[in-house]
Amino acid sequence: xxxxxxxxxxxxxxxxxxxxxxxxxxxxxxxxxxxxxxxxxxxxxxxxxxxxxxxxxxxxxxxxxxxxxxxxxxxxxxxxxxxxxxxxxxxxxxxxxxxxxxxxxxxxxxxxxxxxxxxxxxxxxxxxxxxxxxxxxxxxxxxxxxxxxxxxxxxxxxxxxxxxxxxxxxxxxxxxxxxxxxxxxxxxxxxxxxxxxxxxxxxxxxxxxxxxxxxxxxxxxxxxxxxxxxxxxxxxxxxxxxxxxxxxxxxxxxxxxxxxxxxxxxxxxxxxxxxxxxxxxxxxxxxxxxxxxxxxxxxxxxxxxxxxxxxxxxxxxxxxxxxxxxxxxxxxxxxxxxxxxxxxxxxxxxxxxxxxxxxxxxxxxxxxxxxxxxxxxxxxxxxxxxxxxxxxxxxxxxxxxxxxxxxxxx
Length: 410
Known about the structure:
By secondary structure, the chain is an alpha+beta fold. The chain contains eleven helices and 18 strands. The strands form five sheets. It has a seven-stranded mixed sheet. Strands 3-2-10-9-8 form a five-stranded antiparallel sheet, sandwiched between helices. A two-stranded antiparallel sheet has the order 4-5.
């Protein structure tokens, strides 16, 4: 390049931004950008992420339970928890994972709701709560699902497990495989119904991950665990989730009880378009788990709000791209960004886009370019992968050369 042309280029380049600029694209939240940092872990409340109630002056309710957790199912944020990673027995809460695997089989066509399942001797003899199916009879999958989720029938659960995988042991392998895929790091199943076993353990955090996955992925099957009663073989049994009678906004999920596990309940309620999931294990009685779960739901809805900051596919930031066919790239999220905060604090949310400097072409659509960090009062509420919304190809030879020269003078 001739010297006079180079001098002219350098003078003009002073007018262009030489650092990554972040546009204010979302109202109600302050935005900034810094150097990149490592991606967050996949747990519900990973290291460095604060539970929402720590930013509120309102104390969590006192509950009579060994461990508990409350989660906003839309934002995925933990509102509050006690002993979230302590090992606990899931009892019949195990049937939530059995249901997940069965629902997946229904979605992929490996199982049909009107399909008849022959009841084996093993299923018929399974101890504990029962649907009272008879051996060597054929029962529809739809009826067995009601028997499993409404009546908590262990016999129905084993029959469905055998229908999906051929044997209960093969089905349990699918359960553990799915637990790993969902990020349930502290969970191991040894049977499908939730019978006591020293190696059959989970945590309330892992159960919350599972419950959130169920309500998000399989809303079409919500009617099973919100059903109040089911009659089979002229035997009527009521759903043991007493919240279905106590609060009309509650529409699932499942109870559990053994002598060693105590009384357990994973519940969910939908109020004014907002869904909360609560997990509670180790209560002293049926009444105690019902009362404590309702108290936790009411506290979560009353004291916290969930607000949308960004729509799926909407740019969070326009970032300067070097050596690209275009000078900027739009970075955003793969899904809408919802954030849960103490009630009345939505206007105080700050959002920070962190990505590599300089950001070099080529950039592939959907590739992660950085991290979006959401804070309140200087504490992190959430982190989300910041993705390239539209690919940016490399510039031609001279375009790349000009950007190389610009970078030399930063």
